[in-house]
Amino acid sequence: MERRDFIKISALTGAAATLDACRAPDKQLIRFIPEDNLIPGIAVLKPSVCTLCAAGCGLDVRVMQGDAEVVRGGKQGVISMGLAKKLEGNSQNPINAGKLCARGQAGLQVLYHPDRITKPIKRSGPRGSGQFQSISWDDAIKELTSHLTSLKASRSSNAVAFLARPLGQQRRQLIDRFLESFGAPPAIWYEPFDEAVLRQANLRSFGHAALPTLDLTRADYLISFGADFLGTWNSPVAQSIGYGEMRRGRPGRRGKFVQVESRMSQTGANADEWIACKPGTEGLLALGIAHVILSQKLVSHPLAERAGSQISGWSAGLPEHSPAEVEKQTGVSAAIIVRLAHEITSSGSAASIVGGAPLAQSNGLFNALAVNALESLIDTGRDGGPILGFTPGPPLGNRENPVAPPKSGFAHLNAFVQSALGPASGAPQMLMLYEANPIYSAPPATRMRQAIARIPYIVSFGSFIDETSAQADLILPDHAPLESWLESVPESGSLQSVINVAAPAVSPLHDTRPMTDVLLSIAQQLGRDVAKALPFATFDAMLKAAFVPLRAHKGSVTAETDDDFWQNLQTQGGWWSAPPSAGSKGATNNSTAAGRQAPTAVSAPEFAGNGADFPFYFQPYLTPSLGDGSAAHLPWMQELPDALTTAMWSSWVEINTRTGEKLGIQQGDLVEITSQAGSLRVAAMLSPGIAPDLLAMPVGQGHDTFGRYASGNGVNPLSIIAPITEQNTGSLAWAATRVKLARVGGPEQAKLVMYAGQMSRFPHNEEPR
Amino acid sequence: MSHKWGLVVDLDRCTGCQACVVACRAENNIPTAGPDQSARGRTMQWIRVERTWEGDFPNPKIRFQPVMCQQCDEAPCEPVCPTYASYHTEEGLNGQAYNRCIGTRFCANACPYTVRTFNFYNPSWDMPLNLQLNPDVSVRSVGIMEKCTFCVQRIKSAEIQAEAEKRDLKDGEFTTACAQSCASKALVFGDLNDPNSEVSRLSASNRSTRLLGELGTRPNVTYLERGTWQDAKNS
Which of A75, A298, A741, B108 holds its CA 20 to 30 A away from the CA of A123? Predict the structure, then answer.
């Protein structure tokens, strides 16, 4: 559905076309014919899908007519077009029910970003120099197609590689089918903070290789081991909606919430009780609580057979995890462990979740399995079913979770790097890149930069130049998400099956083309198997073919004909199954289905760097504003004060206040943090909310190449992470690097910008808790 | 009966996520200051999430509190404005007439809540970010004071629509940008003159309190206190 075909340049006429009366006649912009049928001043709401994290919230885009300076056919002019003014949550969408998070609001700035690549460009200087020149779409596609054709003819099975961030179901299928029919290896789906460990654990404990969905509206007690569920973990908007109801949505019933973590997160700040636990021992703490429940017989229902069977010693009552023993290993007192066990089991409906740093350890899978076992023990499934459940898959096609990559993206990335650095005969000859930035986010020991430098030809489809796409030889910029056909099947966040589908909310602003349609047209030109695998001219044709069969299933969209169904689907912004009826949630997650694996023995966490030389644990953490760094280019996100520290436009390292005093480090000083993998310098932020032997730094800053708002801002903590992996899944254990700390300068060198003052401690009498 | 607009902030629901801050910025054309001006304390927010730390490791406590213009019945900012740019509307709002403001900043001085922000320089947007600007809200220039208006553009728009359709406004028919985005429903906006509105019901809660209420400003924002571990009863 390309609008550029019918945009005509209207000739300048004397009386009409002037935009700005102050401009001299020779500087007046050409005014193009208006596009949309919008009434000036009257807003319309168009559905869309948020793409700023994987949760898949539905959007309502407020669109109003406005004038935009654009370039059409090489000529600068003004066009009246629908402009996106405000993003709201789609009130009908079961995931977010009309709500939207801070980062989701900033999707508007992706669309109207001044650093977007506005047209296809070709490298004209050395790689990474930033020198590009214009190339027409026809020539660009011809060049790419001819490269692909010659590589296909060479019959080298490894020649073409595709590296992208995890994408929605249909988009992923398009790329997968393209690569498979071409004879290339499967795409590498990579994001720095993937959830491969939790999915693997959930598969073993509950039979679902997926992130969980929490029905907090029925919860009386939630204990979270490191999961920042109100900020960055899993489906934060859906979880926040449930959290509000858990607290104050049920008269007479206020749910309690305990957070276990060594560094207070935004989520942990809301807990009734916050418990610091030694990094990597969170699983042991869960087993300590479970030990008390089992040994004192605090529950009378069947004892979590499936999830429990994943932990050795479970059926014997976890004899090696007495509170005294667990206290020694975790630093959490036995008295607290016993108290928690009693509170959880006397609180009505309880649930336990795990996420974040505990999974990013070498023993991450063990920690997850242990918490899952506790969860199975306490989440009884009475009163409408367990709190922790799983989103049912959509009723069509592959019933396996359609979103989860089959294995750790990091393991896959490492394999790619090995082949790129290996003998030329097996190395990739071309890399296609879409919105993945491993040069920035993968630890330097991964040698991503070196691997990319070896690849003869690199094409990027992303909209921005970042550290990785700056290495491209050819850039074919995609539309912005709000200009695109979007679809996603959220992995979690609702107990209804949800499929988001949306038409573009606004017309393309620049001379960009959808990556999907470019691949489809190349597929047709490559002919034979590839053309047969992808017999669609446009992506929306592919979406229509994929989703129209939903008409046969009971759900939120109904119609008499396929065409009407397709229309109604777009109007609603998606399809969702009927809400689960009250009685149908009875199934627990305790099935004893076959295919279970042998129990996992307790494993202690391993760290890169010994305790003597590197006395501190180091935890990079995600923030709601910048995420994994892919939202760092958005000024609203840079200027959003961090929830706990109010810092903005900056990097900092959180240091326990007493630790800082002992080391002579004052608030705002410049400190140097050194690991086995490297060192960095950053401002010190003294905090009461962090363990004395832990340092924590937010992820997202430290780009050297990512537009005007992000480049040169702050420091990237991932640059000193050692390449230590989780022992079962091969995922990056990003919380397993140890560091040392030294003061190297004062605040005038550290450039810390804060909205408010430092984190003060007021003299205060402790209120009874 | 005329409306009297009010807001309830339930501190037990607020998670400190700041979706309200960004939603407000997007709705009301609030410029970003950038790193240099931000370092000089010139970040502009009409709603901010305060956080207060108490105690020390291992039992630190932090409390989040969204603060916006309290639309006081006895607003200290109104009597001090020499041009009546800060004035009281018939619907209980503290209005800010941008084109009467001459930038004395007496109002911000008088405000005990520090909710008024001043345009120390002409705001600018790197094109095409300006395309996002909301046409329903004036873009302010240098020397103008601004603050939360309870999204008066949305109020006016809803009132005009209801009048055109010859009907009353319904509770929940529209809301402020901050309340609309708030996932945990900590922010609730509505008509305090409607005894059946959500905001009236919540304002009457036994958890309700006013920010610096002892100063006599009579704010129209009601805060509901956070719960405690032993708290089993609801409001």
Answer: A75
Global ipTM: 0.97
User: B141 vs B31, B98, B121, CA distance in Å?
Assistant: 10, 9, 7
What is the spatial distance between Cα A369 and Cα A371, in angstroms, rounded to a whole number?
A: 6
C-alpha dihedral, B202 to B205 to B207 to B213, nearest 10°: 80
Q: Which pLDDT tens digit goes with each residue over A315-364? A: 899 999 999 999 999 999 999 999 999 999 999 899 999 999 999 999 99
A760 and B CB contact within 8 Å:
yes
pTM comes to: 0.94
What are the DSSP calls for A352-380, one per residue? EEE-SGGGSSTTHHHHHHHHHHHHHHH--
Does the distance separating the beta carbons of B17 and A643 come in below 8 Å? yes
Fold entry, domain A152-192+404-466+480-576: Rossmann fold (3.40.50)
Q: Is B123 on the interface with A (CB under 8 A)?
A: no
Task: Report the SS3 class of residue A413.
Answer: helix
Distances (CA, A) of A410 to A189, A414, A461: 9, 6, 21
The label of the residue with tokens 């409906």 reads A349
- Does residue B212 lie within any of the structural domains? yes
Two tokens, residue A266: 């935004």
Within 13 Å of residue A454, how many CA atoms lie on the same side as its CB? 19
Query: Which SS3 state, helix, strand or coil, does residue A263 take?
Result: strand
Measure the CA–CA gap between A61 and A57, rounded to whole angstroms: 12
Q: How many domains does chain B contain in total?
A: 1
Residue B128: asked if its preceding bond is cis (omega within 30°), the reply is yes
* Tokens encoding A252: 């007479």
The mean-pLDDT minimum among A8-17, A27-36, A195-204 falls in A8-17
**Which residue type is seen at A289?**
I
Cross-chain CB nearest to A640 (options B18, B62, B230): B18
Q: Is residue B125 part of a domain?
A: yes
CATH architecture of structural domain A3-111: 2-Layer Sandwich (3.30)
| Residue A476 contacts residue A144 (beta carbons within 8 Å) | yes
Residue whose C-alpha is closest to residue A651's, from A674, A625, A616, A678: A625
Q: Which of residues 98-137 of A touch B (CB under 8 A)?
A: 98-106, 108-109, 111-114
| CATH 3.90.105.20 at A209-389, yes or no | no
Chain B closest-CA separation from residue A512 CA (Å): 15
Boundaries of every domain in chain A: 3-111, 152-192+404-466+480-576, 209-389, 616-750
Q: The domain that contains B14 carries what CATH number?
A: 3.30.70.20
Residue A310: partners with Cβ closer than 8 Å, 6 or more residues away: A204, A205, A369, A372, A373, A596, A597, A599, A600
B235 domain residue, yes or no = no
Instruction: Say yes or no: do domains A3-111 and A616-750 share a fold.
Output: no
Share of chain B above pLDDT 70, in %: 97
